[in-house]
Design brief:
The protein is mainly α. It has one domain. The protein has three helices and no strands. Helix 1 packs parallel to helix 3 and helix 2 runs antiparallel to helix 3. The longest helix is centred in the C-terminal third of the chain and has 37 residues. It is elongated, with a radius of gyration of 17 Å.
Length: 101
């Protein structure tokens, strides 16, 4: 199920991302915090919930874990769009103004 969510999210990004209209760039601090949440915090919470839930018999195990994974995937898509937008802006600045790395 998680793989399906990731594939669908990537397809949505590919369809929505239009180089001419893409203009969403997170500030560095927001980007770094969201990336840390997506790569460390949410997967850790999902794993902890699932593991402890299996041991202790928590209710709604799959529903809560699925919700955490869906939120993580959504935030990952936003980060991906921000990264693409940032790279496009950098490329355009370099082509037009000779700026950037």
């Amino acid at each position: 199920m998680g793989s399906l969510i990731i594939i669908i999210s990537l397809i949505i990004i590919i369809v929505i991302v239009d180089e001419r209209r893409l203009n969403m760039v997170f500030p560095d601090k927001v980007y770094n915090v969201l990336k840390w949440i997506c790569m460390v915090v949410l997967p850790a919470i999902a794993t902890l919930w699932f593991t402890l839930g299996k041991i202790w018999g928590f209710p709604y195990l799959a529903e809560i874990e699925g919700t955490i994974v869906a939120i993580d995937t959504f935030l990952g898509c936003l980060i991906g769009v921000s990264t693409i937008s940032y790279n496009n802006k950098k490329r355009i600045d370099k082509e037009i103004f000779g700026q950037g790395e």
